[in-house]
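User: Could you check the structure of this?
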Amino acid sequence: MNRQLEIYGTLGPSCADPAILRQMFEKGITGMRLNLSHGTLSDSEDLIAAFHKASAEVFGNGKKPSLLIDMQGPELRIGTVSGKKVLGDGMEVRLCPKGSGQTGAGAIPVPGEIFDNYRNGMILMIDDGKIRLRAMEQGRAAEGLWIRASVLTGGTLLSRKSIAVEGMTITGSTLTEQDLWNLSKAKSYGVTDVMQPFVRGALDLTAVRSAMQKAGAGNCRLFAKIENRQGLAALDEILSGADMLVIARGDLGNAVPLWELPRVQKEIAGKCLRRDVPFMVVTQMLASMEKAPMPTRAEVSDIFNAVADGASAVMITGESASGRYPVEASDYLVRTAQEALRWKSGGSGPGR
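Assistant: Sure, the predicted structure tokens are below.
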């Protein structure tokens, strides 16, 4: 089935000015994602107001861009750290349960589930694997449990970043209290789509659908993010309950070895096409453009191939939310995706 290609940016400080958003829409962005893993719709009122202002200026009474909220869901995240912690390769750090009150220069608060699943040598990946730790020892002090870990790959640690453990199954609730509150306000803020992270099976989607109906947001589309092995194993049943499947390569690239990720992406895409379920490809599509005005050749090839493989949607995240060149990144995303559509339809190019 032919569908209009959807091209998303992500709301954030870099595109908080309606004038910037207006330029992004004029370049061809068809929707914006709002990451609610850290907060609520009311926390983002200024961003949402800028979105609606720019939308009205560009589209008037015509078809408006989508407003997609990315929920908190069962994802594991570190707690609050003071300021920025710079972790160097080889440094030792101390992990402690969130809420335990443990402090210290090297203390990092992490979810209690990590202690329940502890094993020597396990690899912990923070912020989509940008920081990697190896667990060396678990113990208990007067103030509570702790894990001593060494830094394999260092970086700047910020509060509330995602954390994943190789081989660990997430067992948390599908929706958090924050998610339920956001759904209750979704309609009043003009939300059109809901993205559920770390979908593990059909029951997750059923729970979200039910909550959306109760909140008066039943008309919103439901996007299901595939980010772990549980989701991969249950892909067939997830396809039956999603309006859009999201190949979320950040955490999915932690769940499987990176060299397997391209194959996994193509296998998911193939299943979606056979079942006629639209799918989106996200994460690091133009990552270099967070700091550079032009993308790499590999990045534009990635976008082109995703659309050529049948993606119904593509999206940039940090490139527009916090990067230096949100308009330029939008332009490259749109132009490359449109070129792929022309090629698919029999336009000019090698082999045509």
